[in-house]
Amino acid sequence: MLRMRIWASAVPVLIASAFAGGHIVASPRPCIPLDGVSVWLGTTPWQNQHHVSFTTDPNQATVRVQIVDSPELADFAIVDDVATPDAASCGEGTTPRYVSVAPHASAAEPVIYLTTEPGADYRVFVQSKSATVQDAAALIVGAALTPPAPARLAAAL
């Protein structure tokens, strides 16, 4: 009986935490800080201001993102082996904006084509256990959609 009471009191807390922040357990998530705004990957449907999708057909793409071999060549890099992440660079004192990956392409949303060929709109580097190349591409394209994004995001990063 005591177990049931503990479980009954824990369920509302878990539900409230999921609704409040979108996560039950905190996990490091990549983000892009801009001027007064931070762009995050959305985890719940009601958070997302922007949506992107991916394609394997370069003719259907509206944005090309190149996967590069080093963080120095990238417009946006996600690397897990940083000793102390800079928590103040994202989130604190900024307005959060969220981007998510839509399961199907829409004419109103960017369609991303990942490539290793030069000449893409953006360049990403990912060396992470939790983030993917698709996450990095969605973030950089979502940041470009978020005012006050510069014409070329690389100039701001």
Give a verbal description of the structure.
- The chain is an alpha/beta fold and 157 residues long.
- It has one domain.
- It has helices at 2-21, 133-145; strands at residues 31-34, 37-41, 50-55, 63-67, 76-79, 95-101, 111-115, 122-127.
- An 8-stranded mixed sheet has the order 1-2-6-3-7-4-8-5, with helices on one face.
- Rough outline: globular
Low-confidence stretches: 19-26, 153-157
Mean pLDDT: 77
Helix/strand/pairing category: alpha/beta
Summarize the structure.
By secondary structure, the chain is an alpha/beta fold. The chain has helices at 2-21, 133-145, and strands at residues 31-34, 37-41, 50-55, 63-67, 76-79, 95-101, 111-115, 122-127.
